[in-house]
From TrEMBL:
NCBIfam families: GtaseAglG_Halo (NF041394). It holds the Pfam family Glycos_transf_2. The keyword Ribonucleoprotein does not apply. This is Glycosyltransferase family 2 protein. It comes from Natrinema versiforme. Keywords: Membrane, Transferase, Transmembrane, Transmembrane helix.
């Protein structure tokens, strides 16, 4: 089974981080492996990519004619790829050497149509003491209670996700109106694909904790204002998903309920038993982020012509 790994990038200022990602994929133990690099409309970056990787076997390069965003770029990469399976990793992540091998093992041993793995936070600077692990999902990392090993989920996080390529393309790939593109705030581009897989094939994605990537978290991801802002737009995005797919499984909604009924009460009990500034900060952050998600959802409810604006 041939696996194609798609890596998308767009900015020269993060080129060193991107190249570390590419090198980790080139160092994979799995074979046959193809690496597809998509540069999102930046010719100087593409020229440097061509200098560094253009002469390597099983490396395919592509540059979009303009900046289209991560969702378009990933789908374009899947179209260019020739593997039976297409895997995606963010350009600010580093894969463990057996990452692809572990994803492929699940495909070999099961009838999976999609497989995703663990995303471990790697703070480039010191982790903020107020940031709770219950909200790792805000920064694209796997949070406690996400799933059991080999459990079927709707989708994993975008830095460690894969699909049987014909299946991914059959359901239309990623919607270019979602995901990161300039100032656009509609998030969770993996969710619609997971929902369409469930609707068409009656099955979701298998999560494996053995396929691991490390997601670099830079200073801005530890900034309180940025995290509140992101929480708000997560809530906004969730409302759009609810409108577009009213009958779909609500993974994040279920997690927020678990947060309110299990994690927050557990935090409070722990704080009562052993009062600490550290514990109080994290509890307050959980309440703040949860409230911001709720405000984003409410803002979306009150926004006229929401779907049309999201697609604009």
């Amino acid at each position: 089974m041939k696996v194609s790994v798609v890596i998308c990038t767009y900015a020269m200022e993060r080129y060193d981080v991107f190249s570390e990602c590419v090198d980790s994929v080139l160092a994979q133990t799995y074979d046959p492996l193809e690496v597809v690099i998509v540069v999102d409309g930046n010719e100087p970056v593409f020229e440097r990519v061509r200098e560094d990787y253009g002469g390597l076997d099983d490396v395919v390069l592509h540059c979009n004619d303009e900046n289209h965003g991560i969702s378009y770029s990933r789908t374009r990469g899947a179209e260019i790829a020739t593997g039976d399976v297409v895997a995606f990793i963010d350009d600010d992540a580093v894969a463990e050497n057996d990452w692809v091998a572990e994803l492929a093992r699940v495909y070999d041993e099961t009838d999976a149509i999609a497989v995703g793995g663990d995303v471990v936070p790697e703070w480039v600077t010191e982790k903020p003491d107020f940031f709770p692990e219950e909200f790792y999902w805000l920064v694209g990392c796997v949070e406690p209670g996400f799933a059991e090993d080999k459990e079927e989920v709707r989708n994993t996080y975008g830095s460690n996700i894969s699909y049987r390529r014909p299946v991914f393309l059959t359901v239309g790939g990623y919607d270019p109106n979602t995901g990161r593109k300039g100032d656009q705030h509609l998030q969770a581009h993996e969710a619609p694909v997971g929902i369409r897989l469930l609707e068409r094939y009656g099955k979701g994605m298998i999560f494996t904790e053995d396929a691991v990537v490390h997601h670099k978290l830079f200073d801005y991801r530890g900034d309180l204002r940025w995290l509140v802002f992101r929480s708000f737009w997560q809530g906004y995005s969730k409302r759009i998903m609810d409108l577009l797919y009213p009958n779909a499984p609500d993974d994040k909604g279920d997690y927020l309920k678990q947060l309110l009924t299990h994690f927050i009460p557990r935090r409070i009990r722990s704080l009562v038993r052993s009062p600490s500034t550290f514990g109080a900060k994290q509890l307050l952050s959980i309440v703040l982020f949860t409230g911001a998600v709720g405000l984003g959802y409410l803002y979306a409810i009150l926004t006229p012509n929401l779907i049309e604006k999201a697609n604009a």
